[in-house]
Each structure stands twice: as structure tokens, then as C-alpha cells.
Amino acid sequence: MNAVHQVGLEQRRLVGLLVTGLLLATASRTFAARCGSDPGDAPAIAATRELVDSQCDCAAATTHGDYVKCARQVVDAAENSGLRKSCASSVLRCARKSTCGRPNAVTCCRTTAIGKTSCRIARDSNHCVAPHGGSACVGDYTSCCDACDSGGCVQRPTPTPTPTKPPATLPPPPGFCQSSLGLPRLGRVPFTTTHGSDNCGGANLMPAPAPPFSGQVTDALGQRIGDLGLGCLYTGSLPPASVPDGSTSILDVVGKSGSRLTLAGSTGTGPADCTLGAGPDRHCSNGKPGTDGLGKCTSDTDCGVSPVHDHLVGACNLDANCYFGPPVPVPNGVISACAISAFLTDMCGATDLATNQTMVATNLSSRLYITGDEASPCPRCLGGKCSAGKNVGHTCTGTGSTSTTFECPPDDDRFFGTLTVILSSLGTGTSTLTDARGMFCPDQISSGAFGNDSARKVTETGMPAGGSGNPQAQTLAGTFCLPASGSSIVDGTGHLPGVGALSAPGVLDLSGLVLLPIP
Questions:
Q1: Are 7 and 71 in contact (CB under 8 A)?
Q2: Most buried among 11, 25, 377, 505, using CB within 10 Å?
Q3: How buried is 406 (Cβ within 10 angstroms: 0-12 exposed, 13-18 middle, 19+ buried)?
Q4: CA atoms of 17 and 24, how far apart (whole Å)
Q5: How sure is the predictor about 478, in pLDDT bands with cuts at 50, 70 and 90?
Q6: Which of 113, 78, 86, 100 is nearest to 144 (CA)?
Q7: Following CA atoms 359, 365, 370, 373 in sequence, which dihedral angle do they give, to the nearest 10 degrees?
Q8: What is the pLDDT of residue 176?
């Protein structure tokens, strides 16, 4: 099977095209300018070349022409997703000047007597001959774009194990949660999400979200840059996602002081509504066999992650025990994705029945899958069966209007990376991040928020429960900082570390507290 035919048959290779779109769709640039004039050109070229490497098997190519034809298909598709035409020729040049489809061929780095190095493709290593008075070496890379530098041959780095950060690197629970640890359960408080904005908008807040809004982004003069939709999750410059309606998270009441109740993680009724942290075991989220053939792992290296495939960093994840709502669809054309968020640590918090204020905190592990299905980015539960993905045809129960469920995950080979979301304060009040330079978060590289360089303040506003009825409507909201994921493509696309924002409208059910002596 030649490389061109492989592209048409192997759906998982669509992931590469989607990654290109993810990297390029958020970049605003003038397409007529020469390649290299825009800061997004270099990462765009690097990402597209990585796609060529993943979609066009260099070693298996039957002819060099087949390989170049395959590379051209990838580049053409990337152009349709946003790669500037002036940069497309750079990617194709690297494919043409390669050994792919040329048995025994090598990249040959030839340095002249005056120290000028050039690269050519030699028929074999015996034909890599030094110029008069100079030197020559056989390159470690298949393309002349990588094989040589000013000193001769570039040495391929020795792969080193990619460590997985242990849970101990996460911040400890906030002060208002410390008192909940280890206490017996006195009752339960379920929170069920309801529908928010019909559309959360696009990456960089373009297009704008649909009302109602829960927050906004302003510049140094206090002028509004954009609104934040109600029921929306914003993560750096990545496309925002709607929080699915109809999902329930149950918290245990473990303490009482006057009208104030202390809340802690709960076993709930199962994985869909419990709020306990992940682990202790780890398995590969990308379906790799791991160390035992069943996906068990201790580091990303056990899941096939290497410097060549660093976009898969985060593949070795703690086993999910409880899910923060069902899978979240992120429709965005060919880069449509599905995000599955598991509780990384127990949820905890407090609610005051006199003031109707609530505050919760947790850390989430959000696993990203690039599916490319804009109509249904996540598999759905239709007619009681999974419509697609890893468990297609299996029995399931859908959640809310999206009909998604953790019982219907995407295919493992669509896994693309993991984001750690640290929700240190999600509540019914107002949450604000502000910085005069727009550097809101530790280790933040570029100023601003959500792809807007001029952002200097980000605000999310919750809504306390109102009235005497039960259940009571309220909105939990918060702003926070997202750490780097470790993936160069995800971090580059999302401008991470960076700002995150979330609002979740819902209803708080207090019926389980009727036997508590509340004043």
C-alpha cells in the first residue's frame, strides 16, 4: 500500500490535519506577506511538517514521488485550514529534499574548506563524499531541512524518559476546604447544571459568544474587549466549550456551623456524579499497551511519548474515578474536539444557607481528543447505544441536550493531550484576574488573555441561590490560571500558561438536608 492510499484509508491520520487547524485557526495574519514575516509562521511550518511525518510513512513509501504526493496532500489540506500559501512551499521543499521513498539514500552534509556547509541527497553512504579540502558526514535525519547546520551533521537527541508529574505537584486544597478532610457525611447536596449561552463564541473571542453573559474582558482603560458566555469554559486561546446541561455533581455535607455547611467530595451514585479524585493507578489514555499490555504506566514514556511526539504529553493519566460532567463537545470545523474532564482531586467547599453563597474548589484533568466531527465532536448516546468511538454500539445513558456520556468515549487513538485545570475558587460571587501588564499567571509568556494582547482584567460573576423554593437556581463562576500542558503544540496554540474562566449555571438541591438542625 503506497503512502497516498494510506492517507485515504486511515482515519486516525486525520488527527494530524486537525492539529494543523488547531494551531493555525487561531492565528490572524496577512496571507500575502512572505513566509517568516508573521510570528506564527515558524510554529505553523513545524506543525505541518510533523503532520507530514505522521501521515506519510517515510520508511514505507514505495517511491519518492509517492511520498512527495502524500506530503502535497497534507500541505494542501493545511492551507485550507489556515497555513499561509507563502509557507507551503517551505514544507514541500523539505519533503522533496529527503530520502523518503529512496532505498539506501542518505542525507549528506558537505562542508567546504572555507567552512560552508550544504546538504544533498546521496544515493548511499558511500556516495557521501567530501569536497576538496573539506569534510562530509551522513546525517541522522531524512530531510536536508534538519540534517545539517553550520558545523556539519546535526546529532539526533537521545530520547529520555518523559516524567509524569505526580499529584503532589498540585496545590493543596484552599483553606476553606481543609476542615472537610476525613469528616463523616451528614447529608448530600447535588448541583445539576442548566443551559447557558447558545454559543460560547470562538477562539480569541471571535466570533463573540451569544448572550446571556457571565463575565467580560477589559483593557487598561477599562474598555470592554469581549464578553464571556454563561455556561462556557475558556482555556487560554483554545476554542471555548459549552458546559453540558443536565449533569449532576454531588457533594457530601460533612460539617455545620450555624447556617454554614462544609462540603466534601462524595461517592455519589457512581462515576457520573461522584466528586472524588483520580487514582491511585495510572493507565495510558492513548490506548498504548503500557508496561503490562493493558495500558498500565508510570510515565508518559510507557505510553509511547518521546521528544518526537511531545504533543502526546499527558498520556499517562491517573485513572478517573469521577467525572466533572459528561464529555464536552467543542465544534470547530475540521479541528472539532472532545474534552473529558475527570476530578484529579476531591471537590470541596462550603455553602451558607443564610446568604445563599456557595464556594467550591477542585483540580481537574481534562483529556483532549481531536475527532474532526463538527456535527458530533463527542460520541453520543442515541437510542441507548453509543453512536461512535471506543464503545460504539454499547449500552449507555446520555446526559442533557448533548446526549454525551463518559460511557461513550472517543477512540483512544484520537487522544491529543491533557490539560490540568486548577479551580481554586469557583463560587457565586465575583472572581477577577487583573494585571497592569497583562501577565496574569505564573510563567505566562505572552501578555493578555484568550488571545487578546491588550487584556488587563478578566471577570466572571456568579449568582447566589435565590428564593425559598427547592431546588434553587444559582451560578458558580471563577477565573483561574492554566499551567503548561507540556505539549509544544497545545501550549503554543493555547498560549499556555494562561488564563482560564468558567461559569456553570445550575440548581442546588437541598432536599437531603431536611433533617439537619438548620436555624
A1: no
A2: 377
A3: buried
A4: 11
A5: very high
A6: 100
A7: -40
A8: 53
User: Cell digits for 509?
Assistant: 438541591
Grouping H, G, I as helix, E, B as strand and the rest as coil, residue 492 is: helix
pLDDT (mean) for 98-113: 95
Residue in 491, 507, 490 with CA at minimum distance from that of residue 189: 507
Determine how β-strand 106-111 pairs with β-strand 117-122: antiparallel
pLDDT score at 6: 40
Give the whole-angstrom CA distance, residue 197 versus residue 195: 7
Report the C-alpha gap between 107 and 98 in whole angstroms. Answer: 7
Residues 6+ apart with CB under 8 A from 336: 18, 329, 330, 370, 371, 372, 373, 374, 377
Characterize the bridge pairing of strands 498-508 and 232-235. antiparallel
Residue 237 Cα to chain centre, angstroms:
11
Cell numbers of 465, please?
441561590
Helix segments in 220-327, DSSP class H? none
Q: Are strands 224-229 and 213-218 parallel, antiparallel or unpaired?
A: antiparallel
The reported pLDDT for the residue numbered 20 is 41
Residue 4: exposure state from Cβ atoms within 10 A (0-12, 13-18, ≥19): middle
User: What per-residue confidence (pLDDT) applies to 140?
Assistant: 92
**Angle subtended by helix axes 14-24 and 64-81, to nearest 10:** 40
Adjacent-strand bridge partners of 255: 262
- Residue 303 and residue 291: Cα distance in Å, rounded? 8
Distances (CA, A) of 78 to 83, 161, 162: 5, 31, 29
Amino acid code (one letter) for 413: D
DSSP class of 119: E
In degrees rounded to 5, what are phi and psi of residue 264? Answer: -140, 165
**Whole-angstrom distance, CA of residue 67 vs CA of residue 127:** 23
- pLDDT greater than 70 at residue 502: yes
- Please spell the DSSP secondary structure of 50-104, one letter per residue: HHHHHHS-TTT-SSHHHHHHHHHHHHHHHHHHT--HHHHHHHHHHHHSB-TT-TT
| Residue 445 pLDDT class (50, 70, 90 cuts) | confident
Predicted confidence at residue 7, as pLDDT, reads 38
Instruction: State how far the Cα of 86 lies from the Cα of 415, in Å rounded to an integer.
Output: 31
Q: Give 12's DSSP letter.
A: G
∠ CA 329-334-340 to the nearest 5 degrees?
Answer: 25
Identify any residues that bridge with 215 across adjacent strands, giving them in sequence order: 228, 460
In contact, 329 and 322? CB cutoff 8 Å: no
* Calpha distance 24→4 (Å, rounded): 24
